[in-house]
Write a structure and sequence with these properties.
Blueprint lengths: L5 H16 L3 H4 L13 H15 L6 E4 L19 E4 L9 E6 L4 H18 L3 E7 L3 H12 L11 E6 L7 E4 L9
Parallel strand pairs: 3-4, 4-5
Antiparallel strand pairs: 1-2, 2-3, 5-6
Length: about 190
Amino acid sequence: MFKMCTIIVRQYVDLIKTALSQIGSDYFKVKTTYKQSGIVRERVFCYEFYHQIRKIMTDSDLKLNSEIDKRGHPDFAPGGWKNPDFVIHTPGTHENNTFIIEVKGKLEPKKIGEDIKKIITFIEEYQYTAGVFVLYNHSLERLKQRAGHVLMEYNSRLSANSVHILAIENHGMDCEELLLSELNHREH
């Protein structure tokens, strides 16, 4: 089975960070007729995120797919029938299960915990090489303050070394990064 080396993982994480940095501010909060300052719409952000990743990805056997529905998939246990926001893989095989990506625009600890659990499950049970959790509209510090207790439930697992947490507050800002395993008790 093909397993990505650390250099390749780093290249894909950097590609994801570059894609995030190219998302316009109108996608972080979508203006509406009832709220000109904008509202968070994860799906709108994800469509643009997908577009930005595809612009950067080079042709290879690995492809970016969004919300691959696992319900009824014979290789996934019913509890694993989850729909990741994105996967980077080679369609039609499990040989290159590379990245699972989950995205949140709101700081909702319960939902963040569900996404982290999904990433961990795909790494541990379905041989994905790494996972990326993206939080937009918030800083990494704010994530630690509001959801650090949820993240701590998973940070000591071996697979936590393969979970990259990325936070970007808005267009033009630096994308912060932390491995789930690097989170410690003093930080939340």
